[in-house]
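Sample 3 of the quickstart, ligand fe (ii) ion:
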Amino acid sequence: MFVIDAFCYWKEPMLIQWSEKLAVGIAEIDNQHQRLIALINELSEIEHDQQKEMQAVEKALDELVSYTLYHFGTEERLMEDYVYADEETHLRGHEQFLETITQMVENFSENEAVTAQQIINYLSVWLNQHILRTDKALAAYLLKRGVN
Ligand SMILES: [Fe+2]
Ligand SMILES: [Fe+2]
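Result:
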């Protein structure tokens, strides 16, 4: 069963902005988070352009999903290499996110039951919460083990 969180339906865009508050202190992860935020913002700019939007949004979503996979791969490799105790919970978070976003992208492509704005809202809120809670906890652990 596909569940979209309530915040997806908020009318106003809830764009995520990079700030020091989101920095986890590990350069590779911070750079990738900044790139993800940039991709979300690029996606939101397309939406204001009414025509020719569908293909452009699909292309931007594709890029975003593949970059997310790449980013999750980086964090998951670090969790493995440094034997992180909370790895399973973190992995589950990534998996659930990918399931939801894949379903949303499919719905968007097939019948527009999901709008680009709902996807952007979901991405922004999820990324913000995930960085602040889950990624920061991982980074704190890695920093203690000399990763920087
Ligand atoms: Fe993560
Ligand atoms: Fe992350």
